[in-house]
Amino acid sequence: INPKYKFEVIDHFPLRYDVEDRWVSSSSVKATEEIDKWGGRFSSEWSYTIFIFLLIPAKLAKRMISIIFGIKRFRKNMFKQVRAPDKGVIRGIDRLKGGLNVFIKLDWNVKRDKKDPRKIKDNTKIRQSIGSIREIFEKYQYGFTAFHSGRPKAGEFNERESVGPIVEEAERLFKEEGLDIEIVLLPYERDKIKGAIDRAKDRYRGKKILFVFENIRFYEEEKSKDAEERKRFREWLKEVTGAEAYVNCAFESSHNDKDASMELVYDFREEERAASSLVIEEISKIMRFEEESGHPYFYMFGGIKWDKLKHIANLVNSGRLGSGDCVALLGGLGIVYNHYIKGDGIGGFELLSKSIEKGEVQEKDVIKWCKQIREGVERNNIKLITPLDHINEVGKRCGEDIPEGFVPLDIGEETIEAIKEFGERVIRRGKGGIVINGGAGRFEDEVTRGGTKAMIEIANKAAERGIAVFAVGGDMHDALQLIGDVNEKIIVTTGGGVVLAALAKGVRNLKSIAALISREGKSIEYEKNLKKKGLKMNLAPSFWMWRGLLGLLPAAEDLVFVQWLLLVIKKEKLELELEKELMFLMLQQRQSLMLKRT
Predict the structure, then answer these.
(1) Could you count the other beta carbons within 10 Å of the beta carbon of residue 362?
(2) Residue, of 329 and 522, whose pLDDT is higher
(3) What's the rounded Cα separation, in Å, for the pair 234 and 236?
(4) Where are the domains of the chain?
(5) Distance between CA 294 and CA 467 in Å, rounded?
(6) Segment holding 31, helix H or strand E
(7) pTM for this model (two decimals)
């Protein structure tokens, strides 16, 4: 309207409102101008907002916006989800009312000896869950749990994949920790389970009992693609257990939201659902990174977990990354990407072929994910770094195209310089977000530790500058412990796939996590505070008129609101504290913002 009045976005802050209890952030606006007089009808004590609505076809709107602003890709969810929740937002175990039976979703998929699967190599997951189990059994008499171990063939019992040895290890740890809880492994055959439960209750009369289902993936409905099959299985689980509540203690499995035992949470009322303190803590870490980070983002991925490529493909195609951001594929991931996309040789690298032989992954899926990564980075103009050179166990170097017989165990100096260069670019800007996940090589050996060490050095420098840094996954956790001297500002989580899924989709878009979010959180308290101040939350009648008209239109899904916003600011120089003064409401389907005059 007048070029002397300048408006600029200067910051992001969390703004809460009670539409499905979602949390979003909006931009605070600062006006820097010298207004002598702007119309006598405007009070110097108020800010005004004016929305102009045009109802036009969505395709035309997108075309217009792309021409004017150069935006080629549109995201369904425009709002950044922020602010780590406390127990008032995600229901903790302490908020359950208690009862007789409870279903506990555990993650006891512990590392077992490959030659002798009866030997448990790492019982950390069991130890970590003991505190939550103790808290649960203070409120309930009987607990029922289900978890998987390994990747068994569905529909049949397999002694090598039985959870029996895990149950025995849990019994030992329970005694060691002073837990007076009996553990009973239920039979695989469904028609024998009810009888086994009754016999155990008679045998341990008056005692607390944790009933453990056999490897839940022995049951083909657990991961069935048929929603009706999964539903029938959930109904059977709830019937046979008689569960009155559901507790999620399995953070690392929470991205498997189409597993029947994870979907089971939706068969309980909101007040009957809860998360363990460990799950709440891990979710809070992700939300803290989402809140504190920003562009430019630098994601460094390593390791040899091939399904990680799927999460990376989702990330680069999600619209969360764009021009100025960078993704580095290092270690085995980078070797495989260069092989399938660039046609480079892999020399003596056999880890992928062994995984395919074992049935852990299918080659067609790996190729598909690699192609999706390439399409995503090209479409969204994301910088991609893949290995430019490699070294073997004695430190001998080769180029990007690995010759036959050469076994690559780490990235070389040229690749290290490439990631350091982009890392320094982020650090010089003093803002952004860095994620490190998986090792760049076999970091257990000094000779092949250079790439992983470089990743951690970049992370440490960035954290010192106040940039948000997220170290993700068990392998990276081990690397940090081994290399040491880690900046305390780095957010560290042992969660792997679930964290990557959350970073790609947004943690609150993971169904298993969203089910644990309580409507009794801070947003309702915020609403009460608004009412105390006399601020109204209702919208103008014209809004509801348009909303009603949209609902009547048969082609409503193909229509959008295009909006213009004009702010008229009072004379004094100020930074609006919109969180205290304005209330945003979001259309659930359109995700459009309405701003009411205050």
Answers:
(1) 12
(2) 329
(3) 5
(4) 90-275, 292-505
(5) 9
(6) strand 23-32
(7) 0.67
Once rounded to an integer, what is the mean pLDDT over residues 294-323?
Answer: 92
CATH 3.40.50.1260 for domain 292-505, yes or no, is yes
Q: What average pLDDT does the segment 449-462 reach?
A: 95
- Residue 106, C-beta contacts closer than 8 angstroms, at least 6 positions apart: 129, 145, 146, 147, 249, 250
Q: What token pair was written down for 361?
A: 């992954």
- CA dist., res. 85 & res. 92, Å (int): 11
Asked if pLDDT for residue 377 goes beyond 60, the answer is yes
For residues 61 and 104, give the distance between their C-alpha atoms in angstroms, rounded to a whole number.
48
**Residue pair 441/331 in contact by the 8 Å Cβ criterion:** yes
Check the CA dihedral 287-291-297-300 and report its sign: negative
Residues 6 or more apart whose CB falls under 8 angstroms from that of 559 comprise 55, 56, 57, 58, 550, 553
90-275: CATH topology is Rossmann fold (3.40.50)
Q: In the chain, how many H helices and how many E strands? A: 19, 24
Q: Which residues contact 446 (CB under 8 A, 6 or more apart)?
A: none
Domains 90-275 and 292-505 fall in the same CATH topology:
yes
Integer Cα distance of 277 and 481 in angstroms: 24
> DSSP secondary-structure letter at 381?
T
Q: Beta strands 6-16 and 99-105: pairing type?
A: unpaired
Q: How far apart are CA 402 and CA 406, in angstroms?
A: 7
Secondary structure of 515-547 as H, E, C letters: CCECCCCHHHHHHHHHHHCCCCCCCCHHHHHHH
Q: CB count, 10 Å around CB of 478?
A: 14
Q: State the Cα–Cα distance between residues 42 and 569, nearest whole angstrom.
A: 9
d(CA 309, CA 317): 12
Please report which confidence band the pLDDT of residue 510 belongs to, taking 50, 70 and 90 as the band edges. confident
- 575 forms beta bridges with 30
